[in-house]
Amino acid sequence: MEPCDLTAIEARRLIGSKKLSPTELLESCLARIDAVDPAVNCMVARDDAAARAAAKDAEAAVMRGEALGALHGLPVGVKDLENTEGLRTTYGSVLFKDFVPPEDQLIVRSVREAGAIIAGKTNTPEWGAGANTRNAVYGATGNPFDPTKSAAGSSGGSGVALACGMVPIATGSDTGGSLRNPAAFNGIVGFRPSPGLVPSDKRPLGWNPLSVLGPMARTVPDLCLLLSTMVSDDACDPLATTIRGKTVRRPEDFAVPAEIDLAGLKVAVTPDFGFSPTENHIREVFAEKVGLFAHLFGAVDDATPDCTGTDETFEVLRSVAFMAGMYERVRDTPELVGPNVRANVEEGLTYSALDVTRALKQQTVLYKTWQQFFGKYDVILSPAVTLSPRPWSELFPAEIDGKATRTYFHWLANAYAVTTVGHPAISLPVGLDRAGMPFGLQIVGPRGGDAKVLAVAAALERELAGDKRTARPVPNIAALAKAQPISAMPGFLGFD
């Protein structure tokens, strides 16, 4: 095993015990990037000199016997929507193709202060719009299990980098599933925390809970380690509500997943939350996978909260969020903005204040319905994504099983059902589907039940690891190293 293939937990333990040098780990990660990234195009901006300097500093701190941060010496991939001081940050937009931020945003500063070393920026769709990671700056990111297929998104670059062993941990963000969708497509773990758990200093609508920041990793314990460095009550985020004189969000509450007895849980199982366009293939695979581990739980029912109106509610509220950040750019430079962003803004312009009011009211109705549902169940299990990975040349799935989709993001309905009501959820890799691509299981918890979701995921991960039908799949790194560059594929750069 190469150092880059170690779990974050194990690598950090070895660094702390002086059995692994941060420079050795970084060089292993950089070598893996050099070997594999041409095939998948996920690590899109690098400053190897700065990373090597940081690794040397980290090594010197170890040798001096200094107190070490939770992530000391661990290379991290940072999503290209997140500002990194001195390292190009484009947001996947040609408008910012040469932008170099003067300072880190909070999530990046937090992982740096915990000792992480930024190995590079990971690719994203333009402004995170859409769950197919491709743009007109860096081009498309391919799935490591088949580079002709989508890596999902919008944290697609982070998902691929993790799956390929380029970094042990990575950052991401999630509105309609952008932490969970790429986790599912690439066979890694992505967690959408409750709004405010990971404070954001960049959300243009501070009280809008749709968009959150969060961690990605190859295992649940690794993800918890990263999450523990992100949580805080920072006042930059109005959703990170606090109690004066008392810390609400404590890193120690998330650093290690809690122990939980799966046999004591009552679980609801749904392929579609009663409304999402889940393809038959995924419905069947989901049923097969659940059949392999349902006996671990105390009770398993086919059940879903009533999600009536979720599509319409999410569509309106999503467009409002895009209007807040993108309206002027679409108005002033429409030729420099991609189709997904334009579609959101154009849709938003058709809504009235009454439409927005109705959406907010229905969101509240849905929230209350979910609270009643969780009075009966501990967690909900569903497919993380409605379909198996399709070619990245398809900008978005226009149909599923022959039926037209409502919007370019309708295929993310299993994820945005959860987003709409603000509950925490994780995507856990559970083997492969019938097409030989990774399958992601979504575990949804109760309001504020972040620690519970992580505990269930960790316990289930341990149980499933010994069966090849349910264990985390790993891409063929040797084959990727020999594959043709994805940049040679037709349609690689742009949106058409």
- The overall average pLDDT, rounded, is 97
Indicate the proportion of strand residues: 5-15%
The CATH topology, please?
Answer: Amidase signature (AS) enzymes
Could you give the distance between the termini? 40 Å
What's the order of the H and E elements? HHEHEHEEEHEHEEHEHEHHHEEEHEEHH
Describe this structure in words.
It is a single chain. The protein is an alpha/beta fold and 496 residues long. It has one domain (3-488): Amidase signature (AS) enzymes, CATH 3.90.1300.10. It is 35% helix and 14% strand. The chain has helices spanning 8-16, 22-40, 48-63, 106-113, 156-163, 180-186, 220-228, 280-293, 310-332, 339-348, 353-373, 413-421, 450-464, 477-482, and strands at 43-45, 75-79, 117-122, 142-143, 146-150, 169-174, 189-192, 212-217, 266-269, 299-302, 379-383, 399-400, 403-404, 425-432, 438-444. The strands form three sheets. It has an eleven-stranded mixed β-sheet, with helices on both faces. Strands 4-5 form a two-stranded antiparallel sheet. Strand 4 (142-143) and strand 5 form a beta hairpin. Helix 9 packs across helix 10 (339-348). The radius of gyration is 21 Å and the shape is globular. The two termini are 40 Å apart.
Q: Could you outline the blueprint of secondary structure elements for this entry?
A:
Elements: H1 8-16, H2 22-40, E1 43-45, H3 48-63, E2 75-79, H4 106-113, E3 117-122, E4 142-143, E5 146-150, H5 156-163, E6 169-174, H6 180-186, E7 189-192, E8 212-217, H7 220-228, E9 266-269, H8 280-293, E10 299-302, H9 310-332, H10 339-348, H11 353-373, E11 379-383, E12 399-400, E13 403-404, H12 413-421, E14 425-432, E15 438-444, H13 450-464, H14 477-482
Parallel strand pairs: 2-3, 2-6, 9-10, 9-11
Antiparallel strand pairs: 1-3, 4-5, 6-8, 7-8, 7-14, 11-15, 12-13, 14-15
Helix pairs in contact: 2-3, 5-6, 9-10, 9-11, 9-12
